[in-house]
Specification:
Strand order of the largest sheet: 1-3-5-9-7
Largest sheet: 5 strands, parallel
Oligomer: single chain
Structural class: alpha/beta
Helix content: 25-40%
Number of strands: 10
Strand content: 25-35%
Shape: elongated
Radius of gyration: 20 Å
Length: 215
C-alpha cells in the first residue's frame, strides 16, 4: 500500500513538489511569476498540506529524463580520478582568484599576508569525497565559495580574527566534505554560497524550458 503524502518525510515531499513545479514551468504550464511564487512557498512550507496544494492543479509529473537532467545540471560535479595532492596559493600584499571549472586537488594551501583570496568551488570538479583547505591568514580577508549541497567543517585558530561559516550541511550523506582549517591573525575568513538554492532551481528550470522550446 502506498504511503499517503501526509505520512511521508516532509523534505522528500518538498523535493518532489519542487521538481513538479520545474517540470510544469519547463512545459509552459506555469508562468514565470506563478512558478517563482509557488517555488518560494514550497521552500518555506512547514507542513505537508501546503506542499500538496501547490501542485494539486498540475497534470505533468516528473519522468526519468527529468531526473537524469536534474542530476547532471544540479548535482555535484564529481568525477573520481587522479589529481594533484596539493595546490599552493601564495599572496603577499596582493590578491588572487581561483574560479571556474577546475579540478580540485586533495588539499589547497593558502598563504595570505596583507592580501585576500577568492576561492570559488561552485563549478569545480570534485575528484575526492574529502577536500582540505589549509589557510595561513595574517591581516587578510579570504572568501571561499562552495556549492550548496556539500558538507563544510571549519577548525581555524583565530587571534583577533574570525571565520564566518554561512553554509548549512547537506542532508545527503554521500555529499563531499570540505574541511577548512588553519590560522588567522587580524584576519577574516568567510565561507558562503555564491548561488542560492532558489537561484539554481530557476537556472535549471529556464534551461529545461529553453531545451523543450527548441525541441
Amino acid at each position: 500500500m502506498q504511503v499517503t503524502p501526509q505520512d511521508r518525510p516532509i523534505e522528500a515531499l518538498r523535493e518532489e513538489v519542487i521538481d513538479q513545479l520545474i517540470m510544469n514551468y519547463g512545459h509552459r504550464q506555469l508562468s514565470l511569476e506563478a512558478f517563482e511564487r509557488r517555488l518560494d512557498a514550497a521552500m518555506e512550507a512547514s507542513n505537508h498540506n501546503i506542499l500538496i496544494k501547490l501542485t494539486a492543479d498540475l497534470d505533468l509529473t516528473i519522468d526519468q529524463e527529468f531526473i537524469n537532467s536534474k542530476k547532471q545540471q544540479m548535482g555535484i560535479n564529481y568525477v573520481p580520478g587522479v589529481t594533484e595532492d596539493v595546490e599552493y596559493i601564495y599572496q603577499i600584499f596582493s590578491g588572487s582568484d581561483r574560479t571556474g571549472e577546475w579540478k580540485l586537488p586533495k588539499e589547497i594551501r593558502i598563504f595570505s599576508i596583507f592580501s585576500g583570496a577568492n576561492i570559488d568551488l561552485t563549478d569545480a570538479i570534485f575528484t575526492n569525497s574529502e577536500v582540505y583547505i589549509n589557510i595561513f591568514n595574517i591581516f587578510s580577508g579570504d572568501n571561499i565559495y562552495v556549492p550548496e549541497n556539500v558538507n563544510v567543517q571549519t577548525n581555524v585558530f583565530c587571534i583577533f580574527g574570525a571565520i564566518d561559516n554561512c553554509v548549512s550541511s547537506s542532508t545527503n550523506s554521500d555529499a563531499p566534505t570540505i574541511t577548512i582549517k588553519g590560522f588567522a591573525l587580524f584576519g577574516g575568513i568567510s565561507v558562503k554560497i555564491k548561488r542560492t538554492l532558489k537561484e539554481r532551481f530557476i537556472i535549471f528550470a529556464d534551461k529545461l524550458k529553453s531545451f523543450l522550446t527548441q525541441g
